[in-house]
Amino acid sequence: MVRKILLWGAGLFMWIALVTAQQGYDCYSVLVGPRASAGGAVLFAHNEDDSGDQVVRWFRVPARDHGRREKVVLHAGAKVPQVPHTAAYIWIEMRGMKFSDAFMNEHGVVIASDACPSREDRPDLTGGGITWNLRRLMAERARTAREAVKIGGALVEKYGYASSGRTYCIAGPREAWMLSVVNGKHWVAARIPDDQVAIIPNYYTIDHVDLHDTMNFYGSPDLIDYARKRGWYDPARDGAFSFRKAYGHPPTQADRRNVTREWGGLRLLAAREYTLEEEFPFSFTPKKKVTVEDLMRVLRDHYEGTPLDLTDGYRRGSPHYTKERTICTATTQYGFVAECRSWLPPAMGTVMWLAPRRPCTQAFTPWYAGITAIPKDYDGGDWKNALEHHFDKNEALLVPAASPAYFSFSAFSEKADSNYAAIIGKVREKNHRFESDLRKNIVAFEKMVEPLFRSDPQKALRLLTEYTGQVAEENLKRNNER
């Protein structure tokens, strides 16, 4: 008995050490241009990774009109003038977190982010700067991904970014962008080429920049001059300017936990093979046209079949607790693959395939941008209260009744980890069958709903809402029965 307790204690210590070591290396994204995807949609895959006691809640915030004097109060206290009208959006909230929420608005713009530490140590901030509200303001105001980039860049230039650094991944029905912000008022944005794919773990990946090419880049006017003044860039020494090399935090840029995860996505998607030792490109040509299913596979990956898989085919336990930082990991709170289709009404054209908690143990179900209500067991309740009290501690949220869906999915993920080798095969098979049936059935459903956007748009939205709710609740029922 004593030996069992000692072994359990040693295992717990290793788990705590591994999770602690992974803090700061949270989140992972893949963006796919429309000519690189199998169906012609812009695709955006994201795993949201955060340690600690977390609760994920879902909200639907309606479109709103605002008065001329209305302000948005930032977390540090600065006040941003509100615009006359803001869009409706779906908000995936993690209470108390500055950088963990995702948004999908009624125009089909989807936003999430990845921490990217910078080397900036003299930030210029106005009114304390901006952090959590940046993505919310982009989601409320942008009709396209490009417009979101411009809005975000302007806010950073005015208020300054009050954290080390971050890259906001933004997808819309026609384009995908990365917006990289630096502590203070410097930023840059790059469009993902239409025929290519881009991967980002937790370091800057935007490389060479041409701010004169406004079809593909935006950024601070003094981006290069400032880097030269700080000694981060010397043309004689470095050659062509590289944003990631100039502004990135050098230890983070070289950290194995980032390198392996980027390599993991390249291994599954890229047309050529890459080694861990070589420099990876900002974007690349895929080996074949990328599907939604391909991206689900990436978000579920633990390097199975490679030397980086330290579980010996799960015989040594769960892949989430090894020394190699995997793409799907212990701290993954949710994953999604957004499919943004320009040829359909945005309400139906953008659909987020969502896996609550760990993607390797949960099925992805479709959530449409145009839904008018959140499925019952996922609904976070009063969105106004949530916006106002996002940073307030509330122990009442840490009980299953506060978010039945999240706690159910989370409990099963922990159960799977306790005996991963015995459980995961059946789980994977059943989830694949469920997702395959959804992909087949959704074709007929959308064919029926699309004409209604011309004849009876309210009915179309009601059907999207009902379908999203039915499938989400069915997935929860499946989870509760396992």
If you had to describe this structure to a student in words, what would you say it looks like?
The chain is an alpha+beta fold. It has one domain (25-480): 4-Layer Sandwich (Penicillin V Acylase, Chain A), CATH 3.60.60. It has 15 helices and 18 strands. The protein has helices at residues 2-22, 133-141, 145-159, 223-229, 235-238, 243-247, 250-254, 256-269, 292-299, 346-349, 383-388, 404-418, 420-449, 452-455, 457-480; strands at 28-32, 42-49, 56-61, 64-65, 71-73, 79-81, 85-86, 89-94, 102-105, 110-115, 161-171, 176-184, 187-191, 197-200, 217-219, 332-340, 350-356, 365-368. Strands 3-8-9-10-11-12-13-15 form an 8-stranded antiparallel beta sheet, with helices on one face. Strands 14-1-2-16-17-18 form a 6-stranded antiparallel beta sheet. A two-stranded antiparallel ribbon has the order 4-7. The two termini are 30 Å apart.
Low-confidence stretches: 1-23
- Average pLDDT reading: 94
Q: The CATH topology is what?
A: Penicillin V Acylase, Chain A
Beta content:
15-25%
The CATH class assignment is Alpha Beta
Distance between the termini: 30 Å
Tally of DSSP helical segments:
15
Tell me the name of the CATH homologous superfamily: Penicillin V Acylase, Chain A
Structural class: alpha+beta
Please estimate the helix content: 25-40%
Broad shape: globular
Q: What oligomeric arrangement do these chains adopt?
A: single chain
State the major sheet. Answer: 8 strands, antiparallel
CATH architecture: 4-Layer Sandwich
Over all CA atoms, what is the radius of gyration? 22 Å
